[in-house]
């Protein structure tokens, strides 16, 4: 039986703030070579030269690392610019290959990543660094999210200040000042996000399309763009599942525990904003309002119907994204006329 090797070499990379621990696995000879370079531009160049000395060309080599946030951004940008095939996987990937639960070193993790890349080479994603505008949008969106959470926490403290027996006068003044300052900074960030979208042709075009959709406000648009800008096709089922809205069965053998339900897990900000979008269209859009009232009359719980509306919105947003078409408010009526 003929076996096709996708790559001759797999390089596992464990990323830390200061170092990159590498493990070069030769899939043909099964030999491995560890190496370490600094997590700097000079270290990336050193990595490229070392791979050349190991006869690991770009056409025969696959790099694999875990998603480590900021520590891996510069490496991903370097591999994208220099044409290296690079896969960034979830931090839970090593659980599929690691049999030693008590061992944890950077060198060991690099070797395990190489082993994971060898076993699942046909499933590895091709990861590329986002364009500068998209990267800047992600950064601004993350900062805004952090400030919004801080402001909400301070507002909660203000509502509970009267419940304390101690003198809270000075503290409440400090909290109000912080809330005011955070509100000013959030407004400034939102203005920077708006200017960034307007000045980038690709983001601006996507923005013009999404803004016509029901439930799509400024916050949801910028969040959606920060998540999916650079992606040409979106699968609504995967998007719903990613953010915990898709219903899944729960059964084992003959045991079935209840009906299908969504997990409720996922990006908290996405879930919160989409929930608000569903409440908005339920109130202001006749089609979704009629659907909500009909399901409530059937005895469906409020949150279940809202979750269904969120899935409807996700399917709509993904369809608009994939077709690059603006929302047509008469689309549903046209479909009914065609089927009649």
UniProtKB/TrEMBL annotation:
Q: Which residue stretches, if any, does this entry annotate as coiled coil?
A: 137-199
Q: Which GO terms describe its molecular function?
A: DNA binding; transposase activity
Q: Which InterPro entries match?
A: Transp_IS110-like_N (IPR002525), Transpos_IS110 (IPR047650), Transposase_20 (IPR003346)
A Gene Ontology biological process in which this protein takes part is:
DNA transposition
Q: Which parts of the sequence belong to the Transposase IS116/IS110/IS902 C-terminal domain?
A: 208-292
Keywords of the record, alphabetical order, are: Coiled coil
Statement: the UniProt record of this protein carries the keyword Coiled coil: yes
The source's domain of life comes to Bacteria
A Pfam short name: Transposase_20
Under the heading NCBIfam families, the entry gives:
transpos_IS110
Per its record, how is this protein called by name?
IS110 family transposase
State the organism of origin: Fodinibius halophilus
